[in-house]
């Protein structure tokens, strides 16, 4: 009995026959048998520990909100408590959150959302007719005409139809079926190159040849800055490559309300379009989605406005266009500024920022710094970023968090702070880098 | 429609090749997942709605979705104050509008100040906006008569479902006979069985006692646990209180006994308390696991691991679509808690409008606030109606021969037991259907009423149930209950 108890303490009941291994005749006998070999826990020994928890969860890493960001949080608290630092604020250049960095939401989008949230406002003279029309349409498609009802697990029907219409327009008429559209709770992340059409064709061909399911993360499709670049959707290219590809290659492409010119990260709006999925798989997909009931309906509504914005002739069109161009123009300017400034720094090389919201410059880290990093049990670029954070308050994410070729080092920084602040940040990074090179020469 | 093996080769001959992602190549755990609340019967209900819209003649003019706990879809109005504050947060220009009360504006400003860039559009930290977590802690303290709650032990989530899945995920480990087992009630809300299937954990059923108003019996827990130790490593015990689908509200004695049992047997406790505001029966009272645990003193209060869940989807607010919720963890290992935060961070953050709504749920207008009177009126009205509908449901079903319904003490559902004639049972089996699924399908086809068969929630072998919400408006509910009872009588005659 003691041995069994000891085994149980190690985590689980052994297979060797214990008092509960035999089939007992009466429940009472079973009950008392269990009582006899109750796991004896010393005080403080928990059920759920690092050892006993799900090992797959332990393996999970998400650098964008990883150790460096936790450190940034700690430093912010210290600043709040009045502790002196070489800087007065922490700059969170780690995450693609435009509105956190001061970008204003698109007025029309928030008007429609407010009308949907509090429909009494439909009687208010302060809202334009086109916003009210959109809101009514969305509400009519919601259970109980309210954002507060669950929607179908695949998303509100008319919003999926609007998304399909958007995709069809975007892709020059290549049809999209609302049945292949699934609204989602946000989407995921990406890097800043805009692939050429040829590249996309090659990838599609490769996937076709090697029988790979394609996932195309296209959340930055509205963030293209380089005048020589254009966004080519995987779906469009696939179709234009002809039936052998367009009928066979399985593709899922993703979009989101979090990026673009909207920056509505907090709403967790998004969609995916699936192409050539086996019908039974689609059934399984809806089943899986249904366990979580539905994506947040306010996010679905936000997505609707993104794909169905004001058009020329509508009352809100002018203001909407102005705001959109202003945001995108600003981002393009900051992209260029960042690229140029980084490329002026010895030991930093930054590829052209053709799109998205980030710079991912490559940095030269001297051998002595690499040694120092290893002594601290850190990846060299993590070491660099920690030093950067501690000395300047600027929080960026080390390239090791994203993956990079062995022996190379990078960091990811957003281009989102306002222009003047961005200039200051870039200057500070430059100064830090030069000092770092000197220190570890 | 589905491509079978023969179809696949024909497809290949047509130049369509075999797909990469098929039923055979997909994640086998996902294949095992079932979620009856939105399962086959609901899909059929959607088809019927479509047919009605197309003008197809049916023995009914509308489909009644009594399958899901979605109050606003059934006509319940949102709480005015909540939507005012949220609208102000969404479109802060409205702060200048004379049409909004001052207290709503103050709340909105407070929330916005706590948001990145003062906007609902910014991500929050992964555990949720600090200010809101503090408000949740204060709510819990008030609810539990002063027992302290630490905001650092509170994690906002995408509905309670999001947090439940996260905690279960943490618990699943081990291989073969050491694989994590989780005790869940029968009947249960099928999120639990679905999640355990997806995570490939071992589901260990414990049966609630229908004869005693769905009571939770520790002797039953012991029996099931000891059997389970043969083939898995039981690590957690899930309790839903007030119950879904059963509607029972557990007594304090029961909760104490469960806590004692969990502690003795080394089980992590998950307390799903999303219906804590939905208690109707006289003599029933909600006791939070946290409160009871704390009042039991050491070693329970200091060592028993507990996660308790709440949501903005139920109660008197019914804001399902916003996906607001939280989990409070008690006595969790700090390292594991860090891991949990890490896991949540991959999905960035729960929807911020949902967080804002939750904030109002946990800190509604105070008696001295201008909006209090209207708020209180709306809230009382919703709860009084639900209580009346709970009573009506129990009454009508119990007047029907062949239907027996336990008191609906809380939550939003009735889970009556129905007698089905042996011939119907046989026919169902021939059709490859659970008998109560067969009953519910016929009910849907003939009356348009959509309820969920008991087989979707689990039930004692040889018994049949269905779960129906009490949410339709009173008069409609009355009609539905009568229609359903008549249908049952007809069904019984037909298969006698």
Structural account:
The complex is a heterodimer of chains A (441) and B (496). With 441 residues, chain A is an alpha+beta fold. Chain A folds into three domains: 2-37, no CATH class; 55-101 and 327-439, Aspartate Aminotransferase, domain 1 (Alpha-Beta Complex); 107-309, Aspartate Aminotransferase, domain 2 (3-Layer(aba) Sandwich). Chain A has helices at 2-9, 27-36, 55-59, 67-80, 107-117, 129-140, 157-170, 197-210, 234-240, 243-246, 279-291, 297-307, 317-343, 367-375, 380-392, 419-439, and strands spanning 91-92, 181-185, 214-217, 251-256, 269-275, 348-349, 358-359, 362-363, 394-395, 397-398, 411-414. Chain A is globular. Chain B has a seven-stranded mixed β-sheet with strand order 2-8-7-6-5-3-4, with helices on both faces. Chain B has a three-stranded antiparallel β-sheet with strand order 10-14-13. Chain B has two domains: 28-75 and 376-495, Aspartate Aminotransferase, domain 1 (Alpha-Beta Complex); 123-362, Aspartate Aminotransferase, domain 2, CATH 3.40.640.10. Chain B is globular and about 65 Å long. The longest helix of chain B has 27 residues, at 372-398. The model of chain B is unreliable at 1-7 (pLDDT under 50). In chain B, β3 (180-186), α8 and β4 form a beta-alpha-beta unit. Chain B contains 18 helices and 14 strands. Chain B is α/β, with parallel strands linked by helices. Chains A and B meet through α2, α3, α5, α11 and α12 of A and α4, α7, α8, α9 and β5 of B.
